[in-house]
Amino acid sequence: MVRPLPFWETKSLDEMSDKEWESLCDGCGRCCLHKLRDDDTDALMFTNVACRLLNLESCQCADYAHRQRWVPDCVRLTPKAVREIDWLPPSCAYRRVQEGKGLAWWHPLVSGDPQTVHDAGISVRGRAVSERSAGPFEHHIVDWPGRQPRARRKPKETQ
Length: 159
Known about the structure:
The protein has helices at residues 7-10, 18-23, 67-70, 79-84, 93-98, 108-111, 116-119; strands at 33-37, 44-50, 129-130, 141-142. The chain is of the alpha+beta class. It starts with 6 loop residues before the first helix and ends in a 17-residue tail after the last strand.
């Protein structure tokens, strides 16, 4: 019996249901890190400073449903926004689907386990600091959020 293809391989971002859309988030927290943009050159710089609502252990938003009430400039991802934003990490499922790429083995929709994004070293767990204790963001410029992560090896039982 032939299994049907998963929705992210058959639908565009615009065609996904709300449930499908939300399930695409891998829970890495990379998009919740503050970015700085140079006023003169428009150059983008990533920091390891997390939004105050990001739980640094779970990499989940503390109040996702009401996040824009607490953080008015929190970006709401939409298919249009995904096409226009230049700072989504290359590992981001929304970006990967938009670019016609598949999901990585560590993505919870592929692995069946939300822990794999952390086990693979993709998430910000252990790598980010809270904006409440960071001090000047300029002291926290890093390049890893904007690079394709080199995931730890896939466990043998899932290879």
